[in-house]
């Protein structure tokens, strides 16, 4: 009887150890095949309403080794280099799957964009001044363009192409304007360092660059501010647009 009890206790101990090993190992997720991880990345980037940043990707795939994610992303980039209707681009600090530029006319037929309002020449000129001279006040924009810009600024603000990032520390403390993440997305720019020469941009958009517009390299402190920057109080939030007299 004692021998039977000893054997039973030994079997129970072995089973318990195996069960514990199983519990210990259940949190260890098997590494996904590169093809599956690449497919997951493609789906996430495609479904995201805005460019998906590396930070967001790593957070969404927190259970996957970072080096596996980077390798799968490299494979996905390589795959999208093939001829096709879509391309994977880096824009506004993230990744986005978009239609190829040479096919835009066909895509416009689908959405009937002939009714979509386009920016006026005045708005494009003002946007160019802000892009190359930001942060900049309304008075400084007027000085460059030679005409009043208050109405145009309202239009650009409504379309989320520019934003107010603070006030200049001079008499009157006028508002400072800069471009937004939406600006980068609309013009297909990775960041402000991707801005073309003033002349090239003006030619591509079909307007004459203002004579007073001199291209300047954007400063690091204005590469464009995030929502977190605004929330942290590094810049002053305002709700109304400065009116230029």
Structure, described:
With 245 residues, the protein is mainly alpha-helical. It folds into two domains: 78 residues, Winged helix-like DNA-binding domain superfamily/Winged helix DNA-binding domain (Arc Repressor Mutant, subunit A, Orthogonal Bundle), CATH 1.10.10; 116 residues, Orthogonal Bundle (Arc Repressor Mutant, subunit A). The protein is 48% helix and 9% strand. Helix 2 packs across helix 4 and helix 6 crosses helix 8. The N terminus and C terminus are likely disordered.
Question: Which features would summarize this protein structure in a list?
Answer:
48% helix; mainly alpha; Arc Repressor Mutant, subunit A; elongated; 11 helices; disordered N terminus; 245 residues; disordered C terminus
Radius of gyration: 27 Å
Q: From the 3D structure, determine the CATH topology of the largest domain.
A: Arc Repressor Mutant, subunit A
Determine the mean pLDDT. 76
Distance between the termini: 105 Å
Largest sheet: 2 strands, antiparallel
Number of beta strands: 4
Bin the strand percentage: 5-15%
Which spans of ≥5 residues are poorly predicted at pLDDT below 50? Answer: 1-28, 229-245
Counting structural domains, the number is 2
- Strand order, largest beta sheet: 1-2
Q: So, the CATH homologous superfamily of the largest domain?
A: Winged helix-like DNA-binding domain superfamily/Winged helix DNA-binding domain
SS summary, helix count: 11
CATH structural architecture of the largest domain: Orthogonal Bundle
What is the overall shape? elongated
Structural class: mainly alpha
Which CATH class of the largest domain is shown? Answer: Mainly Alpha
Order of helices and strands: HHHHEEHHHHEEHHH
Helical content band: 40-55%
